[in-house]
Specification:
158 residues, alpha+beta, Aminopeptidase, five-stranded mixed β-sheet, 4 helices
Amino acid sequence: MFEYRECNERDCTVWVEMNRAFMREEIREGDVWNDAHRISDGEFREIFLQGLKKKDHIRFILFEEDEEPVGFANLMLVYSVWSHGTAMIIDDYFFTSGNRGKGYGKRGIEMIAEYAKELGCKRLQLQAEFTNPDAIEFYKAIGFLKTDMEFFVKYLND
């Protein structure tokens, strides 16, 4: 049975492993990320544990088939004047390569949308790299509207 649940501290290892797999795939498509893939597992675990404490802003979701992890979503909650309340941002959305083509992607987005509604969110939003045309077509096919915005990033180093 395909289900989702919020992550807890016991999910740290699987969350780190899945995020690493996601980064490996994204970096192959073009190095659009900073050096996050170079941090140690210990640092990565600490990021996860800190995120779990920020329930007002961050939610980590694990997708499972028969209680086996098959994917994840890293979600952010923000207050948006444009959406007249809280918006949920799908920051990362990933299914392992052996679990694609099974309808999990669409079902997972539907689950996230319901979860966002339960939390009182008014809008669900995400972004996809231009280097990932499959994701762009997938999001369009399941009803996301493409907007003409540029996404800017400035990394702040210590």
